[in-house]
Amino acid sequence: MKEIVERLLADPEFRAAKQGARQRIAKLAVPEEVSRWAGWEVTSQACERAEHLAARADGFAPPAGVRDELYAQAQRVTRNPQRTSLL
Q: Cα(73)–Cα(56) distance, rounded to whole angstroms?
């Protein structure tokens, strides 16, 4: 389940979404064979962590080069979830 949460947090669309949209995105990311309670736990953890990240970043605007590199790294992780390092 942790890998689903990490994959969601690597998705810039998920991180930028408002709470309700985040919950819908997270629910769609959970495989159907996962129990309802486990799916809710994944959704809850991912949404909570995204909210904490958003609160910490509030008012922070990184330089364009840094932002673009972070976005590119997140995209690489999303495309290759087996990769554990962002570098």
A: 20
